[in-house]
Amino acid sequence: MQMSTAHFRIAASFLTWLCLAGAAAADPLVLKPFKDELFSQQTVLESRDGGDFEVLDYDEMRDINGRDQIPERRVKQAYVALGVRRSEVKETLDFGARQLEVARVGAAQGGRFTVIFIHGRGGDRRLGVNDFTFGGNFNRLKNLAVDNQGTYYAPSVTSFDSKGVADIAALIAYSAAQSPGRPVVLACASMGSSICWDIARDPTASSVLSGMALLGGATDPDFAKSAAFKRRLPVYFTHGSADSVYAAATQIALYDSLHGKGYPVRFTLFQSGSHGTPVRMTDWRKILNWMIGQG
Length: 295
Description:
By secondary structure, the chain is of the alpha/beta class. The chain is 36% helix and 22% strand. The chain is built from eleven helices and twelve strands. The strands form two sheets. The chain has a ten-stranded mixed beta sheet with strand order 1-2-12-11-10-9-7-8-6-5, with helices on both faces. Strand 3 (68-70) and strand 4 (74-75) form a beta hairpin. Helix 5 (162-178) crosses helix 6. Mean pLDDT is 91; it is low at 1-26.
């Protein structure tokens, strides 16, 4: 049977659709670089477990005094790009039974991925979007989100109990609904780690997540009993070896236990780093690419 020109057009259009559909289905998300020469060139002092555990060189004189214009208060201009502020809003999200103040960077809907950062004691949404503190690391995270068509939320956690957990569970569900089928990553610093561990126990909230990062946080010895563990949610730890608030050895022991079970987990230890070092030094592009790539 001979095919008409119209048939050829239809067949060609169908093949084109199949190719586009296949590309969309694969749609590999790899965050493109942003100032990697400043944030990702840290010296590896030790590596084991096939690179899953690394000890990185950290030096206060170089990584604080040499990086900041005003130590711990204002980073040098080379580390930031302030145009991202045009994509930043502060808003109050209404979840019906509860409201939550957040800073959002990037589109409210249709993001290719979402990152939610949970601060520690004494913080609020302003901490996670401050361009100049912590060596400009939050400015980098904001730029990575916008440059890669993602969405970044920094909520104000008013308590680190069941109310705070419920607030973040609502934000996770909301984020997933705004960008259906896209990765959602939860990152928790310091005392905010208690929110991460409680979310891990929540079957509904943890089922939405694509990864969880703990930056200088506490340890949950019962994580292996959680819903997140059962579905093998990727976990990335970063910690300072000289952390006087949460001992690095305890967190390393949890990592070793998880890794020994073949669990998807990584650990970056900053040699001589203190409690706040992970928030300053964590390589956001590296951990997001790993966690999102596990899916």
